[in-house]
Amino acid sequence: MGDAIRVAVLGGAGRMGQMLIRAVGESDRAHLTGVTERPGHAWIGRDLGEAMGGAARGVVVSADPLEVFAGADAVLDFTTPEATLENATLAAQARCVHVIGTTGMTEAQVAALAPAQRHAVQIRAGNMSLGVNLLTLLTKRVAAALDADFDIEIVEMHHRHKVDAPSGTALMLGEAAAAGRGVRLADAADRGRDGQTGARTRGDIGFAALRGGDVAGEHDVIFAADGERIVLRHVATDRMIFARGALKAALWGHGRPPGGYDMLDVLGLGG
Ligand SMILES: NC(=O)C1=CN([C@@H]2O[C@H](COP(=O)(O)OP(=O)(O)OC[C@H]3O[C@@H](n4cnc5c(N)ncnc54)[C@H](OP(=O)(O)O)[C@@H]3O)[C@@H](O)[C@H]2O)C=CC1
Ligand SMILES: O=C(O)C1=N[C@H](C(=O)O)C[C@H](O)C1
């Protein structure tokens, strides 16, 4: 394994957890040293390979994140907001790179992640794909070039199991649009229309969330004016784009000074 970094996957039985395990397995720069799951999960105590329906891999799925963090240089965390908050403290104690893909965190939960950044490299993004991160830059540019005659609407669609809305990606795109406009998203966001809503408020950034089937993730940023419409679109057809992005982040973060980073930093696209 030579210089390969030691990587653990948190929430290994999840949709993303299984992709992350695959991505680490495909890499010659990383090797899997641990996997966690929620206490009480059916995979706990089982060999990972067997739990996934294949050959034994010599990694036992653990409900004890402490021992898993202790044996890892980096942890990949696509779990729940509550688990991610606990993991941030453990990553700081173990000085692990903490790659956070978890979405649906409240403002207070995001703020609570900050103290851990004094001791650990923490890389967080609502979307780890190259395409979406590029789209945030395009969105910011287009929003900066247009005035509020162009109404901005962000429409996203995801699989039926998704539990948070708007998606983390939609919020990233909303932040980018707001930054381009020179406003705060918190002041401009319209996150739910139903019933007698009244006419659209000029300058609002609207969100709509669709859920159904097995959609991996689709996002449109619409700039709609009288007589014309610009649509910027990203379509994910395979969750491996998120998993490979997360592993790229772990490799990038290994050996860096502690702090809070995002995927634009990892991809070298930050300002
Ligand atoms: N940033 C990005 O690029 C992407 C982010 N995501 C985000 O990642 C998150 C996970 O998505 P997805 O994989 O679809 O969801 P899943 O529900 O399939 O996976 C989450 C996994 O975490 C497990 N889990 C829950 N609590 C703990 C705990 N305390 N310790 C260890 N494991 C735990 C769950 O177990 P159990 O089911 O038993 O509760 C489950 O197996 C979501 O927030 C999603 O939005 C998804 C794709 C890309
Ligand atoms: O839950 C998902 O599946 C996804 N979540 C992320 C989000 O909330 O934007 C990223 C991706 O769109 C898939």
UniProtKB/TrEMBL annotation:
Subcellular location: Cytoplasm
Catalytic activity field: (S)-2,3,4,5-tetrahydrodipicolinate + NADP(+) + H2O = (2S,4S)-4-hydroxy-2,3,4,5-tetrahydrodipicolinate + NADPH + H(+); (S)-2,3,4,5-tetrahydrodipicolinate + NAD(+) + H2O = (2S,4S)-4-hydroxy-2,3,4,5-tetrahydrodipicolinate + NADH + H(+)
Entry keyword Transmembrane: no
Main localization of the protein described in the UniProt heading: cytoplasm
Active site: H158, K162
Superkingdom, natural source: Bacteria
Residue sites binding (S)-2,3,4,5-tetrahydrodipicolinate per the record: H159, G168, T169
Keyword Magnesium recorded: no
One example GO MF annotation: oxidoreductase activity, acting on CH or CH2 groups, NAD or NADP as acceptor
Amino acids binding NADP(+): R38
This enzyme's EC code(s): 1.17.1.8
Record-annotated Dihydrodipicolinate reductase C-terminal domain positions: 131-267
Domain Dihydrodipicolinate reductase N-terminal: start-end pairs: 5-128
PROSITE patterns named in the record: DAPB (PS01298)
Keywords: Amino-acid biosynthesis, Cytoplasm, Diaminopimelate biosynthesis, Lysine biosynthesis, NAD, NADP, Oxidoreductase
Annotated binding of NAD(+), by residue: G11, G12, A13, G14, R15, M16, E37, G101, T102, T103, A125, G126, N127, M128
Oligomer and partners: Homotetramer.
Membership in a protein family: Belongs to the DapB family.
Protein name: 4-hydroxy-tetrahydrodipicolinate reductase
Organism expressing this protein natively: Halovulum marinum
Origin organism lineage: Bacteria, Pseudomonadati, Pseudomonadota, Alphaproteobacteria, Rhodobacterales
